[in-house]
Structures are given as C-alpha cells and as structure tokens.
Specification:
3-stranded antiparallel sheet, 5 helices, 5 strands
C-alpha cells in the first residue's frame, strides 16, 4: 500500500475532518503536507504524520480492508507476580500482553517499524 492508497482507504472508510472529502493532493515531498477539499469547497491541509498517527484513520482503513481479527499484542512491559506457593520462586516475571483489534495491531506495527529505522513508505509496502 502507498501513502496515497492509505489516505484513499481512510477516506473511503469514513475518516476525514467531519465532511465528505472530494479531493486530496499528493503528499508533498518537501514538507509532508497534503491538501484536502470537501463539500462547499472547504479546504484544509494536514501533515502526513498527523494522518498516520490518527487512530480514526487506521480504524477507517481497517473497515475498508476488513481488519476484523483480534490480536494478542505484546506491550514490551514486564510485571511481577507473586506466588502463594512457597515452593515456587518468590516472584515471577510475566510479559504483558493484551487483546487488540487488527487496525490497532497494524498501527502498533507502524510505530515499531519507525523505531527500527524503517520509513513510512517501507512499512506501508508490506501492510
């Protein structure tokens, strides 16, 4: 998927500044901004980062892509649990995991990819 396709799918899934979007420009290679035009010629701009960090955009893409599964996602945190059985270790370390929807899973994967040094375009290609 490209950034353009991501935005198209988000719009198709219902995302977008509270009004119907009739047009959007390609993302500017200079500053990452895209321009939108809605009904009654209302215009606004958004930076690509603001779009990709908007959970509502991911939720809208999820509707279009039919991301309906639940995922067990590891938060990367450790918590201590204590055993009531004296034969067990005094404390056990457990990795925190939680069930999340598929669109959240993909959004988390995007953040992880960015932390690993990948670009947004590289991540969206494998999405």
């Amino acid at each position: 998927m490209t950034t353009k396709e991501f935005i198209e799918k988000a719009i198709s899934g219902g995302w977008g500044n509270g009004s119907r979007i009739d047009f959007f420009s390609p993302v500017s290679p200079w500053d990452g901004t895209t321009y939108f035009r809605g009904k009654e010629n209302v215009q606004w701009s958004m930076h690509l980062n603001a779009i990709l960090l908007d959970p509502l955009a991911w939720q809208a893409v999820g509707k279009v892509e039919r991301w309906e599964k639940e995922f067990l996602y590891s938060t990367g945190e450790w918590v201590r649990t204590y055993s009531s059985n004296p034969e067990d270790l005094d404390e056990l370390m457990n990795f925190v995991e939680k069930d999340i929807t598929e669109w959240k899973y993909h959004m988390h994967r995007m953040v992880d990819a960015l932390c690993e040094g990948k670009t947004i375009d590289e991540f969206l290609k494998i999405l």
